[in-house]
Structure formats: C-alpha cells, structure tokens
Amino acid sequence: MLIVDDHALFRRGLEMVLADEPDIEVIGEGGDGNEAVEMARDLLPDVLLMDIRMPRRSGIEACRAIKEAVPSAKIVMLTISDEDTDLFEAIKAGASGYLLKEISIDEVPQAVRAVHGGQSLISPSMASKLITEFAALAKRSEERQQQVPAPKLTEREMEVLRLVARGLGNREIAKELFISENTVKNHVRNILEKLQLHSRMEAVVYAVREKLLEIT
Fold it and tell me: How far is residue 2 CA from its own chain's centroid?
C-alpha cells in the first residue's frame, strides 16, 4: 500500500503503525498528489491512504487520475476536511473510503483490510451527510419529468446491488445469496460496468435514486 500526505511526521507515524501488521506492506510514501499518481502507476498498490489538501495536485484530483491508471487500486481519503463538497467529490472520483484524521491510529490497519476486502468506509460523522444527500438525490429524481431508461440489470444483479446498497461486503453477500465470493465479485464488476459507475459508493447513490433502497 501507499501513504500520501504532505506532513512527513504524519506519514511516518502511519508507516510505523502499519509496519507492525504482518499482512500489510507499505511499499512507498509521497507528499503530494503528483507523487501519488506517479507512484501508483509504477508500484500498482492495492490500497492508498491519501490526504485531500496537498500541494501541486489535490487528493481528489489524484484519486481520479489513479482510478483511470490503476482501476484496481482502492483509495481511502484520510483527511481533516469534514466539508460536504470534499466528501461528495471524493466519492465521484472513485474513493472507497473517507475517514477523518480524528479516528484512532489503531483503527487504520482495520480500515486498510476492510477496504482491501471490498468494503466502503466512511467516518460516522460524515455518513449522515451522505444519507442526507442520498435522500435529496431521490427526491430530485422524483421531480424529473423525463428520465433516461435505466440500464437493464439481471434479477441476480439487482439482488446483489440491493445488498451492496445495504453495506454488505462480498463475503456477506455470498453467504446471503448462497453463491461464491468470486461470483459476487463478478456480479459487482458487471453492475458497475453496466451502470458506468466507478465505485460501490456510487452504486449506493444509484440504488437510492432508482428507489432500490429506501432511506429512512
């Protein structure tokens, strides 16, 4: 995995914590968005922990470029920014997680494993903002008079999408539907391709907009 933050002490602190984890290897670190993109292309990391506010190129711009160059990379924004706009833009850029730096340092390894395993992570204080945005999206979709027909998903893909929208990981979905975890991964990939989405989080937004998931 890669660590990208413009504060060297913070990077070193994360690296020291993750060095004690036998199943996590830090293969590089950078101080700005440009370095993040260059290293991602060269090193092909599974996971990146990246700040948003950085010199030369922001974390969100870097996220967008990295997802184009290395689509398999999972990116977690680890930031002090609790701005709605940053959260929404990060999700649109393809981030798999958005965590505030207020989290305990001991929670970082668990977050890395979760994202690597296909889960999406959001700090609780930011999750409520997403739910509010989801509800607003659903309301706006009702008010649209003309809608473009939604791409056709199979019945099984619809089942998988609903479970993804409920926050279930691939393993949990496999158990729920009595299919293999690899089959779930294939379904999720097909769903994202059909809907032209970049992440599971965007799939949740789509599910809410199309009333496949009710937000209470």
Answer: 15
